[in-house]
Amino acid sequence: MKNYIEVFARVLLAQIFLVAVLITLSQITSNPEGYAAYTGYLAVHGLPGIFAPLTIFIQLVFGLGLLLGYKTKACAYTLAVYAMFIALFMKLQEVNGLIFTLQYLAIAGGLIMVALHDKMACSLDNLKK
User: Chief localization class (predicted)?
Assistant: First the structure.
């Protein structure tokens, strides 16, 4: 039973990033000015345009990796660094920023726990054995 709870926790952490990237991609593709609006949103937080494709890539690739349990340790650490980056550079500047910052830091903590216990059931990493 413990194995399946670990998998459930991994899936819950992965879905945060996957749903976020799907919403972002939906907003970008549904509007002709969607990509410009997204880069503008990042610019408001002081981030250059290169971060637009980079954030999409990180959330999509490493979120899928975490969901499937492929290279779990690397995916979890990468997403933990990404979550801390988002917490400190983007969420802290928003209204109610402290709450969102603490939530993203908690997500980063959960991801670090996943990285430390990366041998989980129902993962592609375990199929290679």
Answer: membrane
